[in-house]
Automatic annotation (TrEMBL):
Residues 1-112 form the Gfo/Idh/MocA-like oxidoreductase N-terminal domain. Pfam families: GFO_IDH_MocA, GFO_IDH_MocA_C3. This is Gfo/Idh/MocA family oxidoreductase. InterPro entries: Gfo/Idh/MocA-like_OxRdtase_N, Gfo/Idh/MocA_Oxidoreductase, GFO_IDH_MocA-like_dom, NAD(P)-bd_dom_sf. It comes from Nonomuraea diastatica. It comes from the Bacteria. Residues 341-362 are annotated as: Disordered.
Length: 362
């Protein structure tokens, strides 16, 4: 498995380490970055033989199987389409695209390509999440009534000194898009599809074009209610998921990655067997890029599409678009509503986002 990494900033090192953990069958053969000095440092650190400052040169001169996009979000669509048209596969960091339109253009390129497109969704692959997903499918804990999904992080003003951060044009949104997407994706992978959402979003403190917090109340297809909060204003940072099943409460609290000890189960009174069913869930690997890349390698060996597939990733991106659409229009938004006729299909911010004020909500 010949891998190229595009963009050699901080997240690229995590990719390189996870690729190295796969062992001999996987190797990084090329790296791309517009900053030649940063590129040389990365290539020397990881023993990368080919170095390019343009994706076009990589496509023309190299031979790869998978290209990892660790570049800023505003570049993902064009880079992914170019690589897929070359016939190679793409593993893309979140968010995979700036809008539903861009994501659908990637999916269309994938349909024409010999390669496949995967989105980095590393939290889906922790052992406890995999086991819980199977337990939910077996109905081990009964129906889900209520769920919480909080991404309460802190980013100072200086974080947004990087030019592409905090703008609709290059980052696609604020914490709803760039930060909360991780926990929202894990939540949907466990709790099932969503049906409608009512949301608010605003900018209270950070020097951005985008929101710095959002809230949403989501109706899931199962009938359960999901409450979401995304924030960059929270001094005590946490990533928190909670599932209130008929048979008990499952909680996950971590920050950027979880292990088995990040989970907690509280059995419901009157269900004496619930705790034993929880205790039978097998322990295993923590969440992270290594866990997902192992699944990617197995998929490529078998000829299957890379996880997380475009079909699996799109519902999360659609929910994010619907959160923005609801927040900026003040109405409930249903799944499937944001089609090509909607301005929120082409831009997460839609036409009203620039009217956000520093102290108000949309």
């Amino acid at each position: 498995m010949r891998i190229a990494i595009v963009g050699t900033g901080g997240i690229a090192g995590i990719h390189a380490a996870a690729v190295s953990a796969l062992g001999e069958p996987a190797r990084i053969v090329a790296a791309v970055d517009i900053d030649a000095g940063r590129l040389d440092t990365f290539a020397a650190r990881w023993g990368v033989p080919e170095r390019y400052t343009r994706v076009e040169d990589l496509i023309e001169r190299s031979e790869c199987d998978v290209v990892h996009l660790c570049s800023p979000p505003g570049l993902h669509r064009d880079q992914a389409v170019a690589v897929l048209e070359r016939g190679w596969s793409v593993m893309c960091e979140k968010p995979p695209a700036l809008s539903l339109r861009e994501f659908d253009e990637i999916a269309a390129a994938e349909a024409r390509s010999a390669g496949s497109f995967g989105t980095v969704s590393q939290h889906r692959f922790g052992a406890r999440a995999v086991a819980l997903r199977e337990a939910i499918a077996r109905d081990d804990f009964g129906p889900l009534h209520l769920a919480l999904c909080n991404t309460l992080w802190f980013r100072p003003d200086s974080y947004f000194a990087v030019p592409w951060r905090g703008t609709w044009e290059s980052e696609g949104g604020g914490p709803t898009m760039g930060h909360g997407i991780h926990q929202m994706d894990l939540m949907l992978s466990l709790a099932g599809p969503w049906e409608s959402v009512r949301a608010t979003a605003g900018r209270k403190a950070r020097p951005t074009q985008t929101e710095d917090f959002s809230t949403a109340v989501v109706t899931l297809a199962s009938g359960a209610t999901l409450v979401i909060v995304n924030s960059l204003l929270s001094a005590r940072e946490t990533s928190y998921l909670r599932f209130d099943f008929a048979g008990g409460t499952v909680e996950l609290e971590h920050l950027y990655g979880y292990g088995d000890d990040s989970w907690r189960f509280t059995p419901a009174p009157g269900d004496p067997d619930a705790e034993s069913r929880w205790n039978t869930l097998p322990p295993g690997a923590p969440s992270g890029h290594s866990a997902q890349f192992a699944a990617v390698a197995e998929a490529l060996r078998s000829g299957a599409p890379m996880p997380v597939t475009t079909a699996q990733a799109r519902p999360t991106l659609e929910l994010i678009a619907a959160v923005y659409a609801s927040a900026f229009t003040g109405r409930e938004v249903a799944r499937g509503e944001l089609t090509e006729g909607s301005s929120f299909y082409s831009s997460m911010g839609g036409p009203r986002a620039p009217r956000l004020t520093t102290e108000g909500t949309a």
